């Protein structure tokens, strides 16, 4: 199989990268009608599979789960998840031939095997639904021409997808139709109906393409979302230890700090996050983040280039073929870092203290969000897509670090994201070695404002505020966040 | 939990000008020697409202108190400050018995309890407990007991009797997420009775408890005080333990002695005429509102509902009763379309077989619901106004622009229930009684076919309960179908005409109420 994106002429590459439309709620007026009475068979009953299925059935759709024979025979968790909730469960052979829509919610790595197995069983003119386009775009999986191929990707963990639905709301969602596989022109209507079934239409839907989704998703997760959070966390922790800050305090500050700081990001964007700092700290964070952007820009560009050229995916697939040797090795190494091994101390850290004593992380996040966004947009990805894959998802990932540090983050994200995260981390740490030498405890570990006068130059502050607020990620963010105002805030420790 | 460093006498003194440390010392020397907690000139304000106004209270060793009175008078605030006197304006002095083996501390058991999962996260959602997922991320009940026992140095064998007395043994293997609100409450009570602090404060201890558990709780409290502990109960219930010594109320921010629980201090305003739109007969979609034929619900090996047959016809008024854990909440979750296992043959709602293409929202739009769980998981960002308005959409919080015609209805019902002055306050900052009224308004705002009131009067005072039930009677006179859950015969609306009784997941009785 050849990389699909690379098989396209430049004109078509740009065309598909540029599919990006924030949809109006009125476009969902038809509800789930396009899928009503259709047999929807979900393959995979993990967190996304189970929770999406629960929502879809509660929206009046006909849902069952196709599992591998071994999973049924051995009563694996996926089998229990489905049967304990009174879903119909069967083997691929039993359920796929009758399915109008087959939903593939297995991990990326299994896509080729799963799709190869189910495709011959799928009936004529049925639909195959993905929630991530890696298999189609990077692996170049060719789907039978009578089959419609669509994507519906809720931009939140499975448990949130369920929780928000039961509140009567939803989570922001991305939908797409694969242009090579829309023989009857019904793809978009079905994707919209599926989106309504999961509740996503209430929280803002972005119409994208398989290509745009994959290229932006990979870029986001490798750089700002996982890579930089990992690098920033480890460097910050090591710096505090080097400077004699209590390890328990340092561990707690880093573990929960990203979550508290990015919660501000969620509500008010980068400028909202920066506004949580005192004026002098904001000016310092601004200057440091400018420096960080200069240092890290080439690395961000390299990641984007490797993603666009297919270099990243081919390297990673070689590792798949090699039994995940590198992934497992790097995972083990992350588990051995001092940050990972030092439990959070039993100290109370107030919400504002996370900002005042962790200015460095604020600077890291501003630099990372803006760089990821800028690099994606330069590569032809539209601003809305770039926003979702940078700023929007950062608090969600930060939340996993708060739960169980980097181990938890790397467990929750896909193996694809995890692999890219390690690549970034390994390259970024040496890049920042010189910079980190200049960092002292006023930026990480102690209150930045302590012993400082607090006065600032008016003109400088106004100038900096304007730069922060006028950044394109802020302009598009203000528009998109309006649609998500009702999103529940993540509780902080 | 508050544990003073120096247990013999530890004071928080804040300079109020006239109240110097010296004065305090002289005036209270005598009292302090025999009191366990002495409160002097405690002031609390919430925004512009004075909650506690120079409140003083001497809690003598060995004395058991009942604190009653109207909802919103400051009882919970006071109790929390006694446990954790942080940043207070006033003085609270502790004088625990050094010779007693019991823990020298005040333990406050709140009306409601927030449990956490194994990752310390309390971010759960409405009806999550019915969604079965294999990844287990909360402790089991017995695991929770073990953690608590280890932390407090307690012998697990001592908990056994308490567990049995409150009928909790069957729940030991349940995960915390699977418990109902009443069961969470009991979990807190068991831990408190097991710990035996020198002063135990229980906020609404009887809320959600069935009659038997409540009797047993009283026996346990009587025993507790016989071994040197003492308690304060915040309750308006009249069947309290036999060894209550003192009754008190908070009136205008001050502690005032009261006689018993049979008090009538708040002049009950007569019910105003109902808003016009609530007097119209609901539009019924079918004569048969609920029909269950041989319904079974099980969690793994555990059978929660057994061969349930039940029919509710349009306009009927049902009372649903049963012990804690008898399956009431699960039964109601089937009716409210909240249970993933309701996609089976044998369940008909509003004349339609469940799982025949309807969405849960199609069902919910015909139901007005109030339950402890809905209240528990309600949107913390909702105001009284948006809470009520969300009843039009059955969402937990309002996510839509409200049309004018509906805004008018919300305003009418707010005026009717005297909630106007708090309409823009956050729901969860109000006294419990007001919160319940607002959620009742949410339940009825769309004049539903079926009204489900699951222990709606939990935590309300006697007068509020009467007022509430009168309101329900009046409301249902228009032909609304009602399913009402309530443990106490004395506190039920009079319109109820049929009763279904559950025991251990079986229907044991269906009868007409005389």
From TrEMBL, chain A:
One of its GO terms (molecular function) is isomerase activity. Substrate binds at residues 278, 414. Gene3D superfamilies: N-(1-d-carboxylethyl)-l-norvaline Dehydrogenase, domain 2 (1.10.1040.10), NAD(P)-binding Rossmann-like Domain (3.40.50.720). Its cofactor is Mg(2+). Pathway: Amino-acid biosynthesis; L-isoleucine biosynthesis; L-isoleucine from 2-oxobutanoate: step 2/4; Amino-acid biosynthesis; L-valine biosynthesis; L-valine from pyruvate: step 2/4. Residues 17-208 form the KARI N-terminal Rossmann domain. It comes from the Bacteria. It catalyses: (2R,3R)-2,3-dihydroxy-3-methylpentanoate + NADP(+) = (S)-2-ethyl-2-hydroxy-3-oxobutanoate + NADPH + H(+); (2R)-2,3-dihydroxy-3-methylbutanoate + NADP(+) = (2S)-2-acetolactate + NADPH + H(+). Transmembrane segments: none annotated. One of its GO terms (biological process) is isoleucine biosynthetic process. Residues 209-353, 354-487 form the KARI C-terminal knotted domain. Its EC number is 1.1.1.86. Binds 2 magnesium ions per subunit. Mg(2+) 2 binds at residues 217, 389, 393. Belongs to the ketol-acid reductoisomerase family. Involved in the biosynthesis of branched-chain amino acids (BCAA). Catalyzes an alkyl-migration followed by a ketol-acid reduction of (S)-2-acetolactate (S2AL) to yield (R)-2,3-dihydroxy-isovalerate. In the isomerase reaction, S2AL is rearranged via a Mg-dependent methyl migration to produce 3-hydroxy-3-methyl-2-ketobutyrate (HMKB). In the reductase reaction, this 2-ketoacid undergoes a metal-dependent reduction by NADPH to yield (R)-2,3-dihydroxy-isovalerate. This is Ketol-acid reductoisomerase (NADP(+)). It comes from Chitinophaga silvisoli. The gene is ilvC.
